[in-house]
Thioredoxin
Amino acid sequence: MYTSNINDVNDELNEILNRIVSGITSNASKIRTVEKSCCKAHLNKGTISVRTYDEFLQAVDVCKVAFVLITTTVCPYCQLFKSIFAKVAKVYSDRAVFIEANADYVPEIAMVFHVYSTPTTLVLHNGKLVDTVIGYIPYNNFENYVRETLYSIGCISS
């Protein structure tokens, strides 16, 4: 009789411990992992202007996340947005690569990603297109967009 009470207590304790452990593991799966470095190399602060498709491929390969600004020479909104793109690049260039590609000089990039108007900002994650933003974006909106994108991918914490 005494041993059956001990077995009952042991069973209860095991059940309680199992609930605690399952709670810990389910909470652990919700914790965000933030990579210390989303880039393979330390980048200069700012944008990388590419003039060939090979330069573009090399630049995209440097970081897990690439923001690519497609512009043209005669686009007035492109000229306005380039300075905003460059300012945001200075802030986040340790977490992503910021590439500027002029479609007049490197039309292959625009063709590959089906870009038909400029400015267009492409977001690449591990070399694959995950988002496209067409048009001029004010600084605060673009900075928030970049921060949220990097957070969702795990390159920055809140």
Observations:
- The mean pLDDT is 85.
